[in-house]
Each structure stands twice: as C-alpha cells, then as structure tokens.
C-alpha cells in the first residue's frame, strides 16, 4: 500500500466543470480576514457527526480547538492530524500570521464539509452558497481550502 | 474542494485551494490552486513542523496576488514509497483464553489513554464505537471472519465506521508507543499488516466480499487499494 496507489484510484472520478472561472480580487492580505474551509469532515465533539453522504457543513469555532475527524473515507493518513491539527487545519499558523502582520485577522468561525462526495450538485447549489453567505456575514475576505 | 472554491469566488470571497492529487486539482481548476505533492491526509505536509507549514501557507497566499486564475506546484515533494511501518512494541499476551486480537486491544488501552491525554481524541474511537466497546466490535468482526453473516454478527454500526473506530483506536495508541512523528501511512500499515486486529478487520472484509455482500458495505472497511 502506497500513497500513490490510493491517489490513482481517484483518476476516474467525475468532476464538475465550470464554464467560467469565478474570480474575486481580495483586499490587501494584511487587511484581510482569513478563514479555513476544509473538506476533512472535521467537527467539534458535541456537534453532529457527518453522515455517509452528508452534503452539509459544520461550523468550526476558533476555540476550543478540539476538532475531531469525521471523514468516512479510509483513504488517507490519520496520524498527521492526530499529532497536529495544523497538518490539516492550520489555524495556529494563521494566528502567527496575524501576529507578524502578514494577514489582517482570522475568522472566529470556519467551515468543514465532507470531501467524500460523488454527487456535488447539492454542494454547488445549496450548502456551498450557504457556507459562503455564512462567511461573508462574518466579513471573511479570503478562504484557504484544505483537503485530506 | 475545487467546487467550493468556484462557489465561494462567485459569492465574492477570494480563495486558494490546496490539493494533494495533481490530476484532480488540474482537472477541477480552482481559481487559485496549489498542488502540493504530499501524502493524502497531510495537506500542510509535515505535522509538528510549523516552519514547513508556514512555507506551504506562504506559497498558497502568494497566489492571491495573481490578477487571473492561477495554478502552481509547490516545490517540495513528500513521497510515500509504501514501505515505512511504525515501530510499535505490541503488548505481550496477557489472557491466553482471549482471542489474540481482543487480548491485544485490551493490552493497548493504557497507551491509547496516554495518547488521548497528550493529543486529545482527534481520530480515535467514538464515531460509532466508544473506547469501551472496541473489543466487542473486534469480536463482531472475528465472528464475520469465522463465517457468521455480518448482519448476525453484532457489528455495532455500519462496518466501515466501526472499522474506522478500531483503526483509529490502534493508530492513536501507536502514537504513545513511538518516539517520533511517523511518516504518512506508517500507522495504517502497522495496523493493517502487523496487528491481530488489523488481520481480523481484513479477514472480515474478505469474508463479506466472498459471501457476496454489497461492495459498499465491506469495501470501505480498509483503504481502497487493499
């Protein structure tokens, strides 16, 4: 079993193709509020776990950083996240980027989706726009997207 | 990830997407994409290495300066060659009357608790099976491996989720038995290839496949290349 073998299994998966590439020019980075959106199915322990084909999202508060892995796929390494949440969800690193003036601020709430989706239409049409609205209402300018 | 990038950009939020699979991030073409040739599960590359993680983030954030869609490749690769295995001493047999996998799982409990105390429960038991139920879950998979139909074996949930809890219990315990951060997949290989419980999970999975159970029921009990 090697990482490349697992990656190769994704070769035939269907993709959504977008006719046009939407593009937003951000405010200067040192003024930007940054959030993380991950497809790692993270959630807080007391929040609802992800269902097998869950197209919704969970809100990840900046505190407490007690995130647990709710992903249904067995096809990724677990120990990196187990040792250090920043391997998947680099929130401590963003705090440090605020401290050194690289970015303006870090959002108080971030989002997690479930990456193990075969039908992405609900994410595209429903939970994706809803998540964007949620972040916009917080004043988020920039999102860093992380997979597992 | 890329679908969300397109949606968020359309809603007025600038994004930069990290991707671990080159053909995937290329074909889905997020507005700003950074392919990092890192193992699955480690999009920032190296756990417990803030400097490395900052270099990855810096490369990602640099893409925000582009005035048009952009795809870039991170200049450092982390390649898993499929050979490294965590070096974890397994507990000696304690109860000769117990199945070896159940005896083993019981013997790992102190290590599991130490790891939870140190790191928190991030990937361990608790999705479907709480830690006190891990040995019973292994017992159900032993019965499947012995030929009992899975629906009659007492599996305490969807088999894939139960298997995740067992694997998570073992890989969490392994963190307390190892003196260094393991490379990616080394914990999974240790569990699947070097533990009694891993053997039970794989045997149960094979038994379900041989019995003609629906593929999604057993397939996701282990990584898909198995």
Description:
The complex is a heterodimer of chains A (148) and B (226). Chain A has 148 residues and is of the alpha/beta class. Chain A has one domain. Chain A has helices at residues 3-8, 79-83, 91-99, 121-137; strands at residues 33-38, 42-43, 57-61, 68-69, 105-106, 109-113, 142-146. In chain A, strands 1, 3, 5, 6 and 7 form a five-stranded mixed beta sheet that branches. Chain A has a two-stranded antiparallel sheet with strand order 2-4. The longest helix of chain A is centred in the C-terminal third of the chain and has 17 residues, at 121-137. The two termini of chain A are 17 Å apart. The mean pLDDT of chain A is 94. Chain B starts with a helix and ends in a 7-residue tail after the last helix. Chain B has a three-stranded parallel beta sheet with strand order 1-2-3, sandwiched between helices. Chain B is mainly α. Chain B contains ten helices and three strands. The longest helix of chain B has 19 residues, at 159-177. Chain B is 48% helix and 6% strand. Chain B has two domains: 2-73, no CATH class; 100-219, no CATH class. Chain B is globular, with a radius of gyration of 21 Å. Chains A and B meet through helix 1, strand 4, helix 2, helix 3 and helix 4 of A and helix 1, strand 1, helix 2, helix 3 and helix 7 of B.
């Amino acid at each position: 079993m090697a990482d490349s073998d697992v990656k190769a299994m994704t070769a035939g998966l269907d993709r959504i193709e977008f006719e046009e590439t939407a593009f937003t020019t951000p405010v200067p980075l040192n003024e930007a509020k940054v959030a993380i959106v991950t497809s790692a199915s993270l959630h807080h322990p007391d929040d609802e776990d992800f269902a097998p084909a869950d197209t919704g999202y969970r809100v990840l508060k900046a505190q407490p950083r007690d995130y647990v892995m709710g992903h249904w796929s067995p096809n990724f390494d677990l120990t990196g996240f187990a040792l250090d949440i920043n391997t998947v969800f680099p929130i401590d690193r963003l705090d440090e980027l605020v401290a050194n003036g690289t970015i303006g601020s870090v959002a108080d709430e971030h989002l997690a989706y479930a990456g193990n989706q075969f039908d992405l239409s609900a994410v595209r049409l429903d939970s994706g726009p809803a998540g964007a609205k949620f972040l916009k209402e917080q004043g988020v300018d920039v999102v860093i997207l992380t997979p597992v | 990830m890329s679908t969300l990038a397109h949606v968020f950009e359309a809603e007025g939020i600038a994004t930069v997407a990290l991707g671990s699979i080159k053909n995937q991030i290329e074909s889905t073409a997020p507005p700003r994409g950074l392919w990092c040739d890192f193992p699955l599960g480690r999009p920032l590359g190296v756990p417990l290495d803030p400097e490395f993680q900052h270099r990855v983030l810096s490369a990602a954030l640099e893409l925000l300066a582009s005035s048009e869609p952009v795809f870039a490749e991170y200049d450092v690769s982390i390649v898993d060659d499929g050979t490294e295995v965590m070096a974890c001493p397994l507990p000696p047999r304690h109860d000769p009357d117990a199945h070896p996998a159940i005896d083993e799982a019981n013997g790992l409990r102190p290590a599991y608790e130490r790891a939870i105390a140190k790191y928190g429960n991030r990937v361990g038991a608790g999705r479907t099976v709480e830690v006190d139920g891990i040995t019973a879950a292994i017992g159900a998979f032993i019965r499947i491996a012995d030929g009992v139909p899975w629906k009659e074996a007492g599996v305490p949930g969807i088999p894939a989720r139960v298997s995740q809890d067992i694997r998570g219990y073992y890989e969490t315990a392994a963190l307390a038995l190892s003196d260094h951060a393991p490379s990616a997949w080394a914990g999974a290989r240790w569990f699947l290839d070097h533990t009694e419980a891993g053997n039970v999970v794989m045997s149960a999975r094979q038994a379900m496949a041989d019995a003609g159970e629906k593929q999604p029921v057993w397939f996701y009990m282990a990584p898909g290349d198995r």
